[in-house]
Known about the structure:
The complex is a heterodimer of chains A (377) and B (104).
Chain A lengths: L3 E2 L1 H5 L8 E2 L2 E2 L7 H10 L2 E4 L4 E6 L3 H8 L11 E8 L5 E9 L3 E7 L3 H12 L6 E4 L4 E7 L3 H9 L11 E7 L2 E6 L8 E7 L3 H12 L5 E3 L1 H11 L33 H10 L3 E8 L15 E4 L2 E12 L4 E9 L8 E4 L2 E6 L21
Parallel strand pairs in A: 1-3, 4-14
Antiparallel strand pairs in A: 2-3, 4-10, 5-8, 5-9, 6-7, 7-8, 10-13, 11-12, 12-13, 15-18, 15-20, 16-17, 17-18, 19-20
Chain B lengths: L8 H26 L23 H15 L14 H17 L1
Helix pairs in contact in B: 1-2, 1-3
Amino acid sequence: xxxxxxxxxxxxxxxxxxxxxxxxxxxxxxxxxxxxxxxxxxxxxxxxxxxxxxxxxxxxxxxxxxxxxxxxxxxxxxxxxxxxxxxxxxxxxxxxxxxxxxxxxxxxxxxxxxxxxxxxxxxxxxxxxxxxxxxxxxxxxxxxxxxxxxxxxxxxxxxxxxxxxxxxxxxxxxxxxxxxxxxxxxxxxxxxxxxxxxxxxxxxxxxxxxxxxxxxxxxxxxxxxxxxxxxxxxxxxxxxxxxxxxxxxxxxxxxxxxxxxxxxxxxxxxxxxxxxxxxxxxxxxxxxxxxxxxxxxxxxxxxxxxxxxxxxxxxxxxxxxxxxxxxxxxxxxxxxxxxxxxxxxxxxxxxxxxxxxxxxxxxxxxxxxxxxxxxxx
Amino acid sequence: xxxxxxxxxxxxxxxxxxxxxxxxxxxxxxxxxxxxxxxxxxxxxxxxxxxxxxxxxxxxxxxxxxxxxxxxxxxxxxxxxxxxxxxxxxxxxxxxxxxxxxxx
Lengths: 377, 104
């Protein structure tokens, strides 16, 4: 049930029940999922990320506290850069996904996958072990939007000039003026295309939203709901707590062994993870694509559907969606390690599925060079 | 249209074993050539080579191309960035080249 609401809903004249994410009323779809999808994959779209938690952690032991609760190691994260990570519970299961920003005097945790209050509680539970740490929930005080798409950099260039194309992946640039709004610009996204997060004071979110939409008209920009964002994440195999995160028994089933911070001090779930590392995971998440004859409007593929191989059940589907780019259904499945390999064919009900390499598609952004290309060329 | 789907369990298990051998060799080559502080068991097949995965860079990409040629005798064309996404996409490329060669 929603306990917060994005101001964008009222601003865009959407019904109050247009969607809910992480306890926040926010739009699942603004116009049409297919139109929004083509916007992200071909041009640029704007996302309302009001539902994200925005939690500041400061004090001498801030790094140690955060490191105690996440999979990765923050120790080498430079000031004005961000790192993607996963918050863990005591059993090494994922709680939410995080983008952790080192702002110098504090860390800002941008969380998705659970209500911000859950993240704050999790931090507060262990804070006693880290004296002097201050945890502040700024989720309602800060606004967060994003631009995603192969030409998102070009839209930002309208406001920030040519210099914006030099912003490196995961770089954080404070005090950028966009439409009269003081914005912290972060080059990061979850769609596989060029992506930028735009953090501002909450009361200026609508001004920023309107400025981006207005400048975006010539790019045929559309607002993007979380349904399209979820599909793009799945296509690019960007971790989502809402999709595969909630299904796994431990974080290593998400193919995250390379993220495991071996060199840092003890952290929650470490013993469990070391046990799993020693024996190997018994199952893991894989990408599957379905027979292309399955119609886009089919309701055959639902989370929980069994995957069968060799006459027995070897896993289950944890999410599925119709990929407009690939013109077929795709999904993520949690499958026994023995047969969790690219090229294997499974049956899901009456439908055939084949496991494929991550990511599902080749992004247009990988062919775009901001120094040379333009949406208008 | 999709190619006919192979459903023979024995044949599929053979394909799994073959692919896992290639995946292991790729991981060993990357660890050795790029001096990565990992063991092959630390690297999942779907690990991204750049960004949030192994965090490699463009110099490393050149080394990977050289490594695939040295280990498997396959030459990655210039600009084949689609094959340089994950360990699995590298394996897709190697296996596809090997299949072409076997077909004569």
